[in-house]
Amino acid sequence: MRITALGGGHGLHATLTAMRYLSRDVTAVVTVADDGGSSGRLRAELGVIPPGDLRMALSALMSAPAALDERSDGPTPLGRSAHELWTTTFQHRFGGRGALAGHPIGNLLLAGLTEVTGNPVAALDELVAVFDIDGRVLPMSAVPLDIEADVSGLESDPRISRCIRGQVAVATTPGKVRRVRLLPTDPPACPEALESIRSADLVVLGPGSWFSSVIPHVLVPEQLTALRDTSARKMLFVNLAPEPGETTGFSVERHLHVLHAHADVLRVDDVVVDAASVPAGRERDHLIRAAELFGARLHVGDLAVPGRHVHDPEKVATLVNQLCEGELSRYAVRAQES
Q1: By three-state DSSP, how is residue 161 classified?
Q2: pLDDT tens for the 338 residues of the chain, in order
């Protein structure tokens, strides 16, 4: 099964780990709007696309389990990657107080290879080849992007919105994010990412920082067209809990409405949520209707690491495997049953 996973940061890392239980042919398409930390510094100094989320995606594929054992009922790693040392090194941040302080080694490798090859996709492909990584990592766009948001609650009049620019600023704003845009407003899509979406058997979007890692994927016009036109099965994974700053106070239903407001032409087959985040009853009925905005069916399952608002990759892989095999009886939610 050819799988393409869209997202960024820790959410995409978890998704890639889950998808690697199911297939060796996994492609990550990663947002490129980060302007903080090491990524922001390298972006400002060198003009490269921010490497941090790309590095995390490479690390996820480098350290992920092998594909699902078809003889088992659930995800069983066929053998761990032999890259533990390099995975740790790739993620290692320099200490001290000098110019290198805070930079992960992987960020520097990506930035250096991008300068040498003159192409971020070529740089990523070279690292995949050097480390013998199954799968591929691609940027959403080959140019660095900026996020701009309309935020309310920062003025005495709650009806007034202020324009906040920059991913870090948007993520940490104390107000309520109403809408986000990418700058430039019509960014060039990565051709290889478009082809990955079009040729996939399964496309997965989310979870992740909703306004900075998930919604940006539908704000690149060519990529939204590819998502609309692909024959792949499309699954949307909603966050387990609101994220402080970006989605404080958001219900699961609100996450769906906000995404739909940014891309009302987007259609998906499955909306997947954790059972604990939406108790059965009226709230779940509303969520069923919200999923129908995308033409999707709602699926609910036990997806979280116990005691944490983090998706468990093995649980996610098991659910996705059952959905793809048509075993929906345990997870499909019907309004008349709620």
Answers
A1: strand
A2: 999 999 999 999 999 999 999 999 999 999 999 999 999 999 999 999 999 999 999 999 988 665 544 444 555 443 344 568 888 899 999 999 999 999 999 999 999 999 999 999 999 999 999 988 989 999 999 999 999 999 998 888 888 999 999 999 998 888 889 999 999 999 999 999 999 999 999 999 999 999 999 999 999 999 999 999 999 999 999 999 988 878 888 999 999 999 999 999 999 999 999 999 988 888 899 999 999 999 999 999 999 999 898 999 999 999 999 999 874 444 444 433 44
- φ/ψ (deg, to 5) at 163: -85, 120
Where do the domains of the chain lie, and which CATH numbers do they carry? 3-337 (3.40.50.10680)
Distance in angstroms (rounded) separating the CA atoms of residues 91 and 132 = 17
160: left (phi over 0), alpha (psi -120 to 50) or beta: beta
Query: Where does residue 319 rank: exposed (0-12), middle (13-18), buried (19+ CB within 10 A)?
Result: buried
Angstrom distance (rounded) from CA 156 to CA 13: 39
CA geometry: angle at 28 spanning 22 and 33, to 5°?
Answer: 150
pTM of the predicted model as reported, rounded to 2 decimal places = 0.91
Preceding peptide of 184 cis, ω within 30°: yes
CB within 8 Å of 111: residues ≥ 6 apart: 42, 46, 48, 51
Give dist(CA 161, CA 37) in Å, integer: 27
In 3-state terms, what secondary structure has residue 104?
strand
Whether the upstream peptide bond of residue 207 has omega within 30° of 0, thus cis, is: yes
**Rg (Cα) of the chain, in Å, rounded?**
19
